[in-house]
Every structure is written in C-alpha cells, then in structure tokens.
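ingest -> validate -> predict -> emit
validate: passed (alphabet ok, no gaps, 538 aa)
predict: started
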Amino acid sequence: MQWRSFVMLSVGMTVVLLVSLLADPPYPRPVQVYASNPVRMRRPQPNQVILTMTDDFLYQTLIWYEMPLAGASSNGVVHGIGPMKTGVVGVLQQRRKPLETLRSNRSTLVSDEWSVQFEHTLSGPISKISHAPPPPAPSDSDHRLQFAVMYHVLENEDAQHITRVYYFPEESNDVMEYKDLIMRGTTWIDWFNLEHTSILYSRDPDIYRFRIAPLPTNLNHPPHSISIPLDTMIPGEPIKRYHQPKFTQKHRVVFARLYSPANETYRVFSADVHKTRDYYHVNITITDGNTTTNTWKQRDKSVINPTKIYSEENVQYMAFVDGTHQLHHDRVETKMPQLSLTRSKDGKTLVVPFIKNQFLTVDYTDRVDVLKYDEEESRYLYRNKDKSILPEYYFWSYGDRLETASEYEIPMGAELDESGSLLAVWTDANVIHIFKREPEPHHRIVKHSWYLSMVVAPTQGELDAAGIGTITFYKHEKDTYMVVGLLNQEIRTYSMDQVEEVNGIQFLEFVRERWDMLIAMSFIILIFVINESHSSSL
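emit:
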C-alpha cells in the first residue's frame, strides 16, 4: 500500500525536525567587526604569522621556515629530511597598518593597505619561533622585546644555532631592529622561550632538562643587526630516570618562566609529552632555581594517566541494497599534541593545551594563610628546607575541555588576555573556543574555573579555508577585541562584548551547523521509504 511509504516518510521527517528542536542551541558567536582585504600571494602560504601592537600600529610578521635560495631554480639542491637542511633559508616579511583599522568597518576606510616595513632573508632555515612575554607594566620602557626566531646554519663541519631577537630600539618606536644571538654548542635545540632577561631552552639530547642563556645588557641599544655570541649558559634541573619513560619514540616539550615574588627565584614550568609504542605519557612540573648558586628544587609534579594512542571504535554501516546493518571495528589514532602555552601579562596564569581536547591552567595565589588549613591543598604548599611554608602557591586545574565535534580534534594554540580572565583556544578544525572567568583569580582560596562563552566556527569568516596562524587580544577604552591572523595573510577582528543575533528558527540553524548529520539521516530515511515502496508494489 502506497500510503505506508508516505507515512514512513512523514514519520522520518518528523524525527529529523524533533532532533533539530531538541538539539542544544549553538554557543553565541562574537560580532565580526573587521575583515581585511583578500591578499594575492605570489609565495606559498607562510608557516606562521605573528601579530604585535604598539599604541598606534598593528604589525603583521609573515614567516616562511624554508624557502629556496634567491636565484635558485625550483629544482635546486635541498638536502636533509629534518628541520635542519641545506639549500633553503628562512624569510620574514613585516608590514603594518594603523591600529584603529581593527575596529573600523572596511567600507568606511580610505585605505586598507599594508605598509611594508622590512623583508629579511636569513642564512639558514627557521625551526621555531617565540613571542616575548608582555612587559610587567605599560610604561616599562626597558622591555621592548617583541619576538624571536631560531634558525640554523651549516658551513662545512660547523653547525650554528642562532636566535634572532626582534625589538623596538631605544631611539624609536616605529621600526623593529634585531640582533643575532649565537647559542653555545652544536647539539640540537628542540625548544626555546624568549623571556624578559634570558632565553630558556632545552637540547636533545642533554643531561639537563633545560638551560638558561642570559640576554646581553642594553640589547635594544645600537649598534643593531649584529651577531653576539652568548658565552654564559646556566644549566637547569638535571635529568632523572623518571623524566623519560622506556621505549620513547617521540618527544615534545614546552618551558616557560612563571611569576615568583622572590626576585632571586627563577621558576620554570614544563610540560613533556612522550610517545611510546602504545601510549602518550604527560609529565608536568614546576621547578624553582637560584641562578646564582645553580641550585634547583622541584616544587610540584604531576604525571597524567597514560593515554592510548590507538582506540577501537564500533562503527555501524548500512548496506545499500537490503538495508541490513553491519558492525565494524575501526582503529582510531589519537594525534600527537601540538604543545603550546600562553601566559597572562603578570605571568601569574599559564594555560597549556595537551592530550586530545584538554587544557591545563595554573594560577598563582597569595592566600597561603588560608590554604595551609586546607587538608587537601596544604600537602602541596611550597616549603623551605626548614619546612616553613613559602607565601606563594599555584593552583592546577585539569578538568577543562573543549567542546569539540570529536575528542580527536586537537588544540593548535591558545592565547590569554592581559588579565588572565579571557582565553581563546583554536583547534586543527579551525574552530575558536572563547572562555571567560571572573577577574582577580590570584586572591582566591579555591580554583578558578573557565566557562565556554563563545565559539567561532569555520563557516563564519572562512577560517576553514585559510587556517588560523595566531590570535591576540586588543583593548581599546572599555571594549575588548579578538584579532585573528590567518595564514592567508588576512586579519579578522571580533568584539568580545557583542554577540551575533540569531535570526530564524532553530531548524535552519541546525541545517547550517549539522548539515552532514542531516544528509545522513535523510539518506537512511530515503532507503527505508524506497524499500517499503518496492515491497508494497510486489
């Protein structure tokens, strides 16, 4: 009977409508304030984008890690399979535009063009970059550091690892200058972080977990564009047996200096991910050191439960002909985390995305006078040799997760605002998750949790096609903006104080956000209707 097919179709579409109405409403989207003009690229897409700001200008630095030597043909000789190669060089191009552009409607602008500041071609390929921490105070003129890149030069039997530090010189606030700092030794440097007065870095292999190279005094004074050997090196915490699990195949690490009220304390945060055959192992530590006496003490340590690299998932398939279901086991691989970190302006808050869609927050607190009476937290308070309690402590918060479409979607980067109360985390699916929390987290006696406030999906602003390079926050008077630097060289600005209005019924929103699920459900319904129609005609 033909009416049975019609009833089945009606019931199926009703179920689809009910699913759309019962689905959780999407998170608000921030209002897009500005989008720069599309850029025609003569070169391939850059590997990284850095955004820096002054009172008047936005600076965009495009970084290509490996470009053919100038004048060489596309079949030029390139040798090496790792980040250290011959036949290629790193290239940086910097340009700027007025900062007020970021909060303007492009149609009202007289000009939206970039002004090129410089283009530098290095002597070897770039392997990594580091952003300078923000100055402790806006008026602190001694902290003019902006960012650094590490590149590598191989000449005959000699290999050099060089950190090029970019800064605003003492005599100018308009054009950045640089100095090349030649690192000691030839062992490979697998991580470095530019700090206010030093470079914190680690080598592979090494007998120390990290090393510290003090920056030259008056780094931002002339002469500029010169090379300076870093002769002084301070070894960090020695490597112990438990720092690396057996049968490690791959290793990633991040280091950063944390705030301490004691000026003589050099406090180091570290997160290590080791890949073995079957598991990812995550170790996180906070270590205090005195660079004068070269003594180190581990203040806190956490070993996250090992995460399986491969997991078995049941996937249900439907045969096209008879509509029968088949159950298969798929082996799904968890990706190696792309470790990154971000710090607040005062260095008292640090966020690190790690395994899968998780991220860790550490927060400084000065309420040790109360915490010492807490049975749980008092066990972890920092103590001197005489067992007296230090008046400083860091909360650890592991429970925060991104609400991703898949738990295998991994974070690619994160950015905190100056206060440490606004956080943006972006993933390999080019989705930006914006978290908020109450201000003043450093005077609390309990952990300070994040809540997901807004989401920018790839369908808004063509993020999916372009790819996210970096994110920074910008405050103008009482308004806060999120500035997104895309890998296609374009800029997007979003207001953190306004959200888009949702027009139309929820079903249309469901169609736009979950079109893949809608197609699958409609296809299944169609198969059942066709089968029923054929059965009725027999």
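The chain has a mean pLDDT of 84.
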